[in-house]
Amino acid sequence: MEKRLLLALHRRPVGRPPFWFMRQAGRYLPEYQRLRRQEPDFLRFCYTPELALEATLQPLRRFQPDAAILFSDILVVADALGRNVRFVEGQGPVLDPLTGRADIEPLTAEPVETFLAPVYKAVTRIAAALPADVALIGFAGAPWTMALYMIEGKGGTDGGRARTLAYADPEGFAALIAVLVEATVRHLSAQIRHGAEVVQLFDSWAGLLAAEEFRRWVIAPTAEIVRRLRQQHPGIPIIGFPRGAGLLYGEYIRATGVDAVGLDAAVPLEQAAVLQRVCAVQGNLDNILLKVGGPAMDRAIVRLVEVLGGGPFVFNLGHGILPDTPCEHVARIAERLRAFAAA
Ligand code: CP3
User: In terms of pTM, does the model score above 0.70?
Assistant: First the structure.
């Protein structure tokens, strides 16, 4: 039998919708917190295949989702490009901010495959360890979101510095995006060669851009990545997640040719049903509602499946699981979704 996630992404009929959760591994799991103590340096944790394997498998044991996502981080690519990435307890990622052409010109995507070899080793080991009905998702940050972290030096800003550089020196910025396109294709292609069956592009900060800039720095580079991956790996499903794309979701889907689109929680379900005529949709339960749980969460699950479950649909959140989310709420969703199959 074909894996449920792959069926949905190829827009073939499935009984119940497949599900997985963005950030299904991580700090909300007590077993992850215990494992993490073995390697306090987060990047070194990511580069230790046994630890990455174990962190990937932890949520599968609890919730039996239809997919595993490689345990790694989008910022390993910035690390491979030599941008001095650190993860600071209680603060998140910190990078030396890149300020202009002098920092951009020396960048090259060439070291990606050798530098990130431990990540691909983890992919191989995860692929070998997965239950037969679970699909393996590989991932990367999309070029705009990577550029944002590299320029801002951290997340959680309004992207002001990155947007300023893109307007003030569009050629210099285009050179940075070009290196990131090349690095992303290499990184995703290596994950696929080592056993990833689906890839997701996280454009977590796509919603910060003005419309024309969105076309130039989100849609165009994503379209190129999709085209090049398709050439190398025909048939590999690609999920795009341009978080906050709003009115431009439809254009993003048509112009990039992704097989599926991740929708944030602000996208109305009626709109999601329209997008579903063009490609598979994934999402979009509010991650805050998952934290809160209770009858409001139960109602939202039913409504998502009622509105989108008839077409190509992957149940997920609108953004990743938050660290203070009770595991029981996640278990509850998994149980409810399986009940749809029995009904
Ligand atoms: O199950 C999974 O999804 C695990 C793999 C994974 C991680 N990060 C592990 C992680 C994935 C797919 C990511 C993607 C990621 N990383 C994104 C895109 C998705 C999104 O949330 O928008 C982004 C923007 C990052 C960058 C990043 N990494 C931030 C901002 C932070 C700190 C804040 C936070 O959310 O934890 C990280 C650290 C990080 N990445 C942790 C994990 C489990 C926590 C590290 C720890 O153990 O302390």
Answer: yes
